[in-house]
Amino acid sequence: MLNRSVSFFLAGAVGAATLTAASAPSPLYPVYQRLWDLSTFTLTVVFAVYVLALLAALLTVGSISDRVGRRPVACGALVLLALGMLLFTVATGVGGLMAARIVQGLAVGTAAGATTALIMESAPNPRLGSTISSAVPSLGIAIGAVLAGALVEFAPLPRQLVFWILTAVYLVLAALVWLVPEKARSDSPPRETMWRSLLPSAQLPRATRPVFVALVPSISATWALGGLYLSLGSSILTTVLDVHSHFVVGVILGVFFVAGTAGTVASAFAPPRHRAWFGLGPLAIGVLVTIAAMSTGVLPLYVVGSLIAGFGFGATFRFAVHALGEAAPTARRGQVFATMYIVSYLAFSVPALAAGLAVERFGLKPTAVVYGALDIALVLFALVAGTAHARRRDGEDDVRRDIAPPLVSRIFGTPRHTTHYLECGPADGPLMFFLHGWPGIGLLWRAQMEAFAADGWHCVAPDLRGYGDSSAPADTDAYTVEEVVMDLTELHDHLGGRTAVWIGHDWGSAVAGAVAAHEPERCRGVVLTSWAYYRS
């Protein structure tokens, strides 16, 4: 098995590679159009069937990795993607293109949730995981566009070579992904059968829904613009801006998505309260510049606009992935990210398909200009929605600070152990665990729990095994740190599995440290303390 660092790198490579296939056909669209006398609308339909197949996969098997594991789903999707690439090499008309795109869409939809969750779970920390998982789509798309453009322009067999190369890459990655260690699944029985879980559905954990709804306009604005670049971008460059080199077309399309990767990385260092503006501001400005470039026919201005808009694309999407990664329970991340990609690809395809219809009636340039203007309007709506959500959350926090939250005593039991714990604070707040020392019980943290709960944290203080009202096994071997950590991971899953801050005192510090060492994906922070007790 691969170590954690290599597994993280490989997971990122798989995430990028699956999206490379999405953009590889784009520089070839003008070739297909001339060779088979296809209309702009037909090309848009070829693009749209890919997204429809992808959505069908997301709605059915998009979260299946939560049940069977990330590794088998990623491997199967890569093999299916290799088959899709082979279908491109033998396509002789629009029917062959559609067949290849459908298989490709099914593969990418199957892989999307699993690879994103695999990246997040193999990352050294949640911040790096969200950065890479949101960077790889734009990086993969950029690689596909530039690679295809270069091979079409300079290499032999322009319609086949890029797909043969990608077929080999996907088969190699499918073999390597089996060497990635699989995160242990919960031993608790699933609530539904495997076949029932395959029924089309898009669900979110209750605690994740407010965050997700607030992010929908931002996700839609970014992916709608990406859909324009990949569906009509080549036609805009060749028809409106008079670019006739397939390589240059691929490079300019790649510029947008390379800038997206840069925006993703840069946004990780932006102040948290300003990350939404950090992405949406450049997105709107960049689209304005590209509209001006199309109106005046100035290619360098279009490239500058693509750079700015691409930066905003990456920064905005990283903000969304990071927020959802923090809000999503560990055991349901595949489902959350699959639902995110359903929204993403609806925004990616539906406006592009409508634009393809509009081109037939109004022409390419007017359609592209109106598309850009509507995307700017969506960006402004996203800013309003994000600001309203932040103010509502801040208002709720102000109310919480004025109310002393009551401690609630609860019992959680499994076949192996019963844990008594105290709980206070909002159920949808960030999670914080307090672990007591020896001798002690969870109630010792009451003052700290009430203070943090009033500030919006969801605070939990369990009685560790053998203490308070938790079960106390007679066998001394039942008190190893491994057993105590297992108690806490079961409780953590019961509470939703969102990343938590773990605070320990004395013996509780040893346990909190062990949680961080063996279950790092459960931790957003660790505080280890040990202080003397003085009688007042």
UniProtKB/TrEMBL annotation:
What's its membrane topology? Answer: Multi-pass membrane protein
Is Chaperone tagged as a keyword? no
> So which domain of life are we looking at?
Bacteria
Q: Where in the cell is it found?
A: Cell membrane
- Entry-linked InterPro entries: AB_hydrolase_1, AB_hydrolase_fold, Epox_hydrolase-like, MFS, MFS_dom, MFS_trans_sf, MFS_Transporters
Q: Which residues form the Major facilitator superfamily (MFS) profile domain?
A: 1-390
The answer to whether the entry has keyword Transport is yes
Q: What's in the keyword line of the UniProt record?
A: Cell membrane, Membrane, Transmembrane, Transmembrane helix, Transport
| Transmembrane regions listed in the UniProt entry | 38-61, 73-96, 102-120, 132-155, 161-181, 211-232, 244-269, 276-295, 301-324, 336-357, 369-390
Q: Name one Pfam family in it.
A: MFS_1
Could you identify this protein by its name? MFS transporter
What organism is the protein native to?
Streptomyces celluloflavus
- Name the lineage: Bacteria, Bacillati, Actinomycetota, Actinomycetes, Kitasatosporales
